[in-house]
Amino acid sequence: MQSVQDPNQSRVDNLNNVISEAGKHFRNEKKAYWKSKIEEPEAISKIKTIRNLYRDINDLRRVASLEMI
């Protein structure tokens, strides 16, 4: 036997589903935002490390070229 659901209860269920989906969406958005914010300094740090490596190499080349003179 099929039960007949109250129309008001159906609206409440739909509203709860919408609220739940919206919450999931914004939780995922917030998680993605903070993940990018956490990874940003790591990427900057890697860039600075590489930049410093090239500076050191260039400094060594300059010193070596000055010693030859």
Which term fits the overall shape?
rod-shaped
Number of domains: 1
SS summary, helix count? 1
Mean pLDDT: 84
User: Helix coverage percent of residues?
Assistant: over 70%
Biggest sheet record? none
List the secondary-structure elements in sequence, H or E.
Answer: H
The rounded Rg comes to 30 Å
Low-confidence spans: none
- End-to-end Cα distance, whole Å, is 101 Å
Number of strands: 0
> Structural class per helix/strand content?
mainly alpha
Instruction: Give the strand content.
Output: under 5%
Summarize the structure.
With 69 residues, the protein is mainly alpha-helical.
What are the salient characteristics of this protein?
69 residues; mainly alpha; 1 helix; rod-shaped
Task: Explain the overall architecture.
- The mean pLDDT is 84.
- It is built from 1 helix and no strands.
- The chain has one helix spanning 7-68.
- The protein is an all-alpha fold and 69 residues long.
- The chain has one domain.
- It is rod-shaped and about 95 Å long.
- The longest helix is centred in the middle third of the chain and has 62 residues, at 7-68.
What is the element layout, followed by pairings?
Elements: H1 7-68
